[in-house]
Amino acid sequence: MSRKNIAVSFFDTEEIMSEKSQNFFNDVYEVVRLIPEGRVTNYGAIAHYLGTRGSARMVGWAMNASHTMDDLPAHRVVNRSGVLTGKHHFSTPTIMQERLEAEGVEIVNDKIQQFDKVFWDPSKELEL
DNA sequence: TGGCTGACTTTCG
DNA sequence: ACGAAAGCCAGCC
Q1: Is the CB of residue A86 inside 7 Å of nucleic acid strand B?
Q2: DSSP letters of A77-126?
Q3: CA distances from A92 to A4, A28, A89, A96, A123 (A)
Q4: Per the confidence metrics, is the pTM higher than 0.70?
């Protein structure tokens, strides 16, 4: 029986999980907010930066709850091919592309052009 | 309890 | 090169 177990006994298990989820959300939001204008990243890169590689879907899951955050540049997060897979989750299906184009990102058929050029990797740019 | 779903990614044929 | 399948893990029946 470690201190950890004792600490757990002071809290409801569901609250612990909820708090953990909150932290995960905040981490995702923090990284997304750090994406420079005119640059984009993908779910896997964020997941990798958070140390949960292979859990890229969880990043998308966190983003799904990001509609409450109006100051979050969620339009700068795309899938690994540079396709705007999440555009249907915005207020209109076109707002994502319009915002990116307003930042100078070229998009054709929902796909970012010169993706390797505008790609922003948090684990590299933020130096861990 | 258990199976299905998803703003994903990687591997394999 | 393109499609299928398998990991991934929290929510929701």
Answers
A1: yes
A2: EE-TTSB-TTGGGSSSTTHHHHHHHHTT--EETTEETTHHHHB--HHHHT
A3: 46, 23, 8, 8, 31
A4: yes
* Closest amino acid to nucleotide C11 (CA–C1'): A61
Report pLDDT digits (tens) over A36-69: 999 999 999 999 998 777 789 999 999 998 888 8
* Tokens 């984009």 found at: A40
CB A68 within 8 A of CB A29: no
Q: Is the pLDDT of residue A18 over 90?
A: no
C12 C1' – A2 CA distance, angstroms? 34
SS3 percent helix, strand, coil of chain A, rounded to 5, is 55, 10, 35
Statement: the CB of A89 is under 7 Å from strand B: yes
Q: Which residues touch strand C (CB under 7 A)?
A: A 17, 21, 52, 54-58, 61
In angstroms, the CA of A80 and the C1' of C6 are apart by 18
Q: Give the mean model confidence (pLDDT) for residues A82-90.
A: 93
